[in-house]
Each structure stands twice: as structure tokens, then as C-alpha cells.
Amino acid sequence: MRYCVIGGANADIVATTHKPFVPGDSNPGTVRLMAGGVARNIAHNLALLGNEVVFLTVFGSDSLGQFTADSCHKANIDISLCDVAADDTHSCYLSINNCDGEMVGGVSDMLTVNGITPEWIASKLAQIGPVDALVADANLPLESLAYLIDHAEAPLYIDAVSGAKAPKVKEALAQSRKKTFFTLKCNHLEWELLNPATGIHRIFVSLGAEGLEVLDNGVITRFASLPCQVMNTTGAGDALMAGIIHAGPQASIEEAAKVGLRCARITVESLDTVNNKLKEQYEQIP
Fold this sequence. Notes:
This protein is of the alpha/beta class.
């Protein structure tokens, strides 16, 4: 299938402690640099699953921005319509993980997404041709999310990203004329900030180790998470979203949840934000 993904792309600095994290102190551990950004990670996972992916973003103008762009090239993601920020800006995310792989906290510095305006999106969408779905993350400016809700000609999937950015989804719905879109993915914290949100056909709420809850036409269905050995939870939600999208807009919620949870499991069992063996390991799951 062919997808267009719009949103954040940045360098991820992921620090993981060797022992339980001690606040206010220097913790021995490992620090790794990886390409990231919710939208970029979703695009990468979709490409690994065998889809054609057009990615729309504004990369940072520094070496980290070039590093992130290079990662997309290597992943066979089409970034021919992307731009580089005109000023000396960068896009970076710092995550601190406990020794069990669970995130202690993170800091996001992503000013480059401010260049993804409604006018910028309109000019790019006019060039990409037909797609099976549009995907966006809540890193986008509020007015850009509202524009996509009103102008998406294919089913629109939105990722809430974080507690700080999730409220933009609700505000964008209120600002839009259509006041409806196909699918939202969020975690339980983000859903607490968004609920009630009307006009969304399907809502996938990640409950972490407790699984996934899906709201579809007023019906709530719960799906258990798959047994796994957690190495790193950063990127698991992005893989979950990619799996939901990969199942296709016509998939039942059961099928979308099944594919999403499989992709999430494979990701948390890897030290990387995106597991490059996603397709190979997906096919091995019974």
C-alpha cells in the first residue's frame, strides 16, 4: 500500500541506566544516538513492512538533521518533497530510560515542525498523487492538524504523541469544518486529556503492558499485550501505530489491533527505537 506520513523527524538521544534510576544524581549507563520523531518512526516501520511511504517534514539544518534525513534514505522512505529549515535550527529528542527499559522522562526540542504550515502541506499534497491513507502526528502546528482534518481525501490517522501535545488534536477538531477523522492513537495519559473527543471513528488507546483498548462506534474492546522481554519502550507506540495503519483502513479493529500489538512487541524487544528486523520477526510470530 502507499501512505503519506506528515510530521516530526529528529535525532533521538536515548540514555539507559545500568541500575535503577536515581533522580538528582549521575547514573552510569549507555547513551545512544538514533533517528527518531513519531512521524519518522511510523514511516520507517511502514517501509520495513513493505509499504511505499512518502514522508513530509522539515529537517533541521545542522548535522543532526542530515543524520535524520540520511536515515530515511537508508530506510527507502521517499523524502524528495521534504525541506530543510532555513535558519540554524535543529530537531532533537532526549529520552532517559530506567534499567528495565521503561522511560523515566524525556525532553523534546522540535521547532522545525513550525515550518509545516497549512500552505506548506497543501503544496506538497498537490504533488504526491493518490495514497491509501494520510498519517500525521500532533507535533504539527494546531492549524496544520485542522487543515488535514478538513482536506484529507484519504482516511486520516493521527498520533497524539504526548500529554503536552495531545490537546492539539481536540482543538484541531473544534477548529475544523468537518470535525471528524478516521483514527486516533494515544496512550492512557493522552486519552485522559482528550476524553471526551467526538468525531473520531476509531480510537486506539495504548495501555502499555496491559494491552490495548479500542473505541469503535461507542463500543470498547480490550486486547491483551503479547508476552515479551522488554529492552526499550521508546518507539513502541510508533510501531503500534504503524501496525494499525499497515492493516489497512478496511481492516477490522481486531485485525488492526493484532498487527499493531505484534509490531509493538517486536520493537520493545530491541534496543533500537525502530527494529530493522521488523518484517522478518513479524512473520515468525505464530
